[in-house]
UniProtKB/TrEMBL annotation:
Domain spans labelled Purine catabolism PurC-like: 7-128
Coiled coil: none
Pfam families: GGDEF_2, HTH_30, PucR
UniProt source species: Actinacidiphila acidipaludis
Domain PucR C-terminal helix-turn-helix: 470-528
Recorded family membership: Belongs to the CdaR family.
Highest taxon of source: Bacteria
Domain CdaR GGDEF-like positions: 291-411
Classification via Gene3D superfamilies: PucR C-terminal helix-turn-helix domain (1.10.10.2840)
InterPro entries given in the database record: CdaR-like_regulators (IPR051448), CdaR_GGDEF (IPR041522), PucR_C-HTH_dom (IPR025736), PucR_C-HTH_sf (IPR042070), PucR_dom (IPR012914)
Protein name (record): PucR family transcriptional regulator ligand-binding domain-containing protein
Length: 534
């Protein structure tokens, strides 16, 4: 560490002079970058800040205002302090105007009551400064070596943050541009406390420049990105100051940016191209002829073939971190591509969103559609759990988009239907989604929403106004096949209580629940209500 004024005063070369601090005690923690010996009164123009000025005062002015101005100019340029040796110009004490001005500006003013060799003082201080600079250089080299090794090894963000936290002795957090935590290392602190209300706290810290220190929060922050595109921030929580760990944080940020680029490169060029072609088909970003040309160059002929769009959705709960989601999607995509290869199929395979992989299967002249889909479903069972939905088979590349969109709609309906598992085949086709799936596909249609309100609106309003649960009672009754005894048991109510509530449902809706058509209409409305609410 660079020595402070207080540490300089403890040196033997200075203590021989019997130093006495007369003013500016609050500035004793200032760092001393260099020592400058001068008797000139206009020395400020030769300083750059951080210097400790040594003088005997023989050429200082007599005028009170000029003495105060001398202290002011030293403070203005950021001098670390002023040491005046008594005996030559000032016998016993320093002038009061000089002392008052130094105290006002917080400039450390020290009187040496005994004569010292200034050259001994400068040598001692400069030795400390040079040692500190050498220590910093060694530390910087250690940082660069450590992160070079991490970059070469392809370390994960968690490993990089662990090293940052270890070197800095403070928690390190990697966040995206939405201030959501991607990875972190608490450095032994409580993670709950570290991440509590993180987004709100992080948004309040916006230092100028790519790297900056926020004194209020104690955060040292640097941008993370590459190729001119930032994608996150690296935060050191509770950093000592802007210069202490800047090199460490910036080097770690560069390693993270490089690692992200390498992660993208790890996804094969083939996978990237497949994804581009699938997205081009779905968004009309590519023409039919362009898709046919590019796919043929990839060894996946699409023109003049029968095509089937397939959508694969990951099952399981959401991952705990965004980086984990990226890794899981990459593995899921590679697993799907492996299943296609193992079955000897010709297909485009690529990730379409955070949880969906699209597959456009190209059937050869002798391929049977059902057998190909059965084989693909069987191959996928060895990989991560997923939901598979297949669209209709089309005979031209220009219709591939329709098959892919149909597969996406079937997957969406099946995912929310909750009553089928794809049957023995292990995947869904259009006939599998049935009524609940159909209603889910139509959930945004204003006509379906109007139907729900017409059938159930009064009952919903009654529940909202009176705090009752008649909609639930009706749902249980219809789900039990209009068996009142079974419905009462399922509702955990006595039969008289349940029958009374059914009569209230009939009264509010103005229907007869003994009529099959009325019950059918209400049952469809309840299923549609569930789809709309989803």
């Amino acid at each position: 560490m660079v020595p402070t004024v207080a540490e300089v005063l403890e040196l033997d070369a200075v203590r021989l002079g019997g130093p006495v601090v007369l003013a500016g005690h609050q500035g004793l923690a200032a760092e001393v970058r260099w020592v400058h010996v001068s008797e000139l009164a206009d020395i400020a123009g030769m300083l750059r800040g951080g210097e400790l000025v040594l003088t005997t005062g023989v050429m200082l002015p007599d005028d009170r205002r000029a003495l105060a101005a001398y202290a002011d100019t030293l403070a203005d340029v950021g001098a670390a302090g002023l040491i005046v040796e008594l005996g030559r110009r000032y016998a016993d004490d320093l002038p009061k105007p000089l002392v008052r001005a130094a105290e006002r500006r917080g400039l450390p003013l020290v009187a040496l009551r005994k004569e010292v060799r200034f050259v001994a003082v400068t040598e001692a201080v400069h030795a400390l400064v040079l040692n500190a600079q050498y220590t910093r250089l060694r530390a910087s080299e250690a940082v660069h070596q450590t992160f070079n090794e991490l970059a070469v090894e392809g370390a994960e963000p968690a490993d990089i943050l662990r090293e940052v936290a270890r070197m800095a002795g403070a928690p390190a957090v990697l966040e995206n541009l939405s201030h959501q935590v991607l990875a972190f290392d608490p450095a032994g602190q409580d993670p709950q406390v570290l991440l509590d209300a993180w987004e709100r706290r992080s948004r309040a810290v916006a230092p100028a420049g790519r790297t900056g220190h926020d004194a209020r929060s104690g955060w040292l922050v640097t941008a993370v990105g590459a190729r001119g595109s930032d994608w996150g921030r690296l935060v050191l929580v509770g950093a000592d100051g802007p210069g202490t760990h800047t090199v460490l944080l910036e080097r770690a940020a560069a390693t993270l940016a490089l690692g992200r680029l390498l992660d993208r490169d790890r996804e094969s060029l083939e996978r990237q191209t497949h994804r581009t072609l699938l997205s081009g088909i779905l968004t009309h970003a590519l023409t039919v002829s362009d898709v046919g040309l590019r796919s043929r160059a990839l060894g996946v002929p699409l023109e003049g073939r029968r095509l089937v769009g397939v959508m694969l959705r990951q099952r399981g709960g959401p991952p705990s971190a965004a980086l984990e989601a990226q890794a899981r999607l990459r593995d899921f995509t590679e697993s799907a591509a492996l299943a296609v290869r193992e079955r000897g199929l010709s297909a485009l395979v690529g990730a379409l969103d955070d949880g969906t992989v699209g597959v456009l299967v190209s059937l050869g002249p002798h391929d049977e559609e059902q057998a190909v889909l059965d084989g693909l479903a069987a191959g996928l069972k060895s990989g991560p759990p997923c939901l598979m939905a297949a669209g209709s088979c089309v005979g031209a590349l220009r219709d591939a988009r329709r098959s892919l969109l149909e597969a996406a709609q079937i997957a969406d309906a099946a995912e929310h239907g909750g009553e089928h598992d794809g049957g023995a085949r292990g995947y869904y086709r259009l006939p599998d989604i049935r009524l609940r799936g159909l209603l889910h596909l139509l959930r945004d249609d204003a006509r379906l929403q109007t139907y729900v309100e017409r059938e159930l609106g009064r009952l919903l309003a009654h529940d909202a106004e009176h705090g009752t649960d008649l909609v639930r009672i009706l749902g249980v009754y219809l789900a039990c096949g209009r068996n009142k005894s079974a419905a009462a048991d399922a509702s955990h109510l006595s039969r008289p209580s349940f029958y009374d509530r059914l009569r209230r449902v009939e009264s509010v809706l103005g229907v007869d629940l003994d009529q099959v058509e009325s019950c059918l209409s209400l049952h469809v409305a309840l299923l549609a209500l569930d789809a709309v609410r989803r």
